[in-house]
Amino acid sequence: MADQKNQQQAYPLAPANGSTRSNEETPNSDTTKDELKRKKRIRLAIYIAIFAVFQAIVIGVFGAVIMRAKNPNFRINNIDPITLNKANNNGGVSSFDMKFNAQVRIQNSNFGPYKFDNTTLVFTYGGGAAVGRVNIPKGKVGLQSKKKIKLEVNLSSSNLVNTSIANNLNRDLTAGALTFRCTAALTGKVELMFIMKKKKSTNLDCTIVVDVNQTQLRSLVCK
């Protein structure tokens, strides 16, 4: 009997439902779940931060490139052919009448169409005396494209009344070259993403040198 009692004391009966072991494991299990939740929150915060940075970069590029309006490029591309009637009177007043076709280019580098107003090209000789004018009607240039306009130009010295300019004309005709300056101002609006319109303007300023002996263009330089 004593041996049986000792054996019962040495090996106590375990709880039938195993609640003691379960209670011992519960704190560790809760800690693991909390740790997983914390890691998920950290991972989510990192994803949100990366997305926010990416969005900021996209918005910055969009604002700096897409939504920034630039001035269009406005210049004379070519002049051809040239018809010239001249009278070089060394002892009197020289004169000329000139006719040619000029191709004007308006280049729009914006991400939206450019609608421009009508404008006038003014041709001057001898430091500012007007010898011809040509009108350009209002129009439109598509996004990231260019528009070429063909113009018929007539220049005449009939309006040159200044004595010094008349003397310069005698000299230039004798030298065989006439130099003209063509200027114009172009105004309009760029339409960006069909929601925003920005006013943009540009100037044309070209120097034209015509060889009067060969009746051809010697040089064309636009700023």
UniProtKB/TrEMBL annotation:
<feature type="compositionally biased region" description="Polar residues">
    <location>
        <begin position="17"/>
        <end position="30"/>
    </location>
</feature>
<dbReference type="InterPro" id="IPR055301">
    <property type="entry name" value="Lea14-like_2"/>
</dbReference>
<protein>
    <recommendedName>
        <fullName>Late embryogenesis abundant protein LEA-2 subgroup domain-containing protein</fullName>
    </recommendedName>
</protein>
<feature type="region of interest" description="Disordered">
    <location>
        <begin position="1"/>
        <end position="35"/>
    </location>
</feature>
<keyword id="KW-1133">Transmembrane helix</keyword>
<feature type="transmembrane region" description="Helical">
    <location>
        <begin position="44"/>
        <end position="67"/>
    </location>
</feature>
<feature type="compositionally biased region" description="Polar residues">
    <location>
        <begin position="1"/>
        <end position="10"/>
    </location>
</feature>
<keyword id="KW-0812">Transmembrane</keyword>
<keyword id="KW-0472">Membrane</keyword>
